[in-house]
Amino acid sequence: MTASFRKAALLTALLAAAPLALSAQALAKPKTDRTIAAVDTDSDGTIDLAEAKAAAGALFDKLEKDRDSTLDTKELQGRVSRKDLKQADPDNDGTLTKDEYLTLVEARFKAADPDNDGTLDAKELRTPAGRALARLLK
Ligand SMILES: [Ca+2]
Ligand SMILES: [Ca+2]
Ligand SMILES: [Ca+2]
């Protein structure tokens, strides 16, 4: 076998393998919901309450810029409507502590899970309730 023949054979093999590699990648990565991709840490394709709370806690810390341990309307950046804020804020100081924020996450999670199986799939996340929850997670 000459060197140039080997080179040609290698090139042919590479060219033959390339489309296969591409399609294998496409198969391995089905189009997932972006919220699920970001929040689904156990990679089962759905979001459970623990995953939602972990993501929400991380987002709370990210949004909480002035380090007063609460999120005010400015820090919330429209994630919670005035009406929802009032309901989620029992001490009525116009801001949410992390506990209040996570309680709101839990309420929105339950609202987004009408089949009550404790997980949210891509379809449930596309509903208005699912989208309202997603706003608190990322
Ligand atoms: Ca999961
Ligand atoms: Ca704050
Ligand atoms: Ca469900």
TrEMBL record:
Region forming the signal peptide: 1-28
UniProt key word Signal: yes
Q: Where is the EF-hand domain?
A: 27-62, 100-135
The protein in question is named EF-hand domain-containing protein
The annotated regions of Basic and acidic residues compositional bias extend over 71-89
InterPro entries assigned to the protein according to its UniProt record, in alphabetical order: EF-hand-dom_pair, EF_Hand_1_Ca_BS, EF_hand_dom
Q: Per UniProt, which keywords does this protein have?
A: Signal
Origin: domain of life: Bacteria
- One Pfam family it belongs to: EF-hand_5
Residue ranges of region Disordered?
71-97
- Asked if DNA repair is a keyword of the record, the answer is no
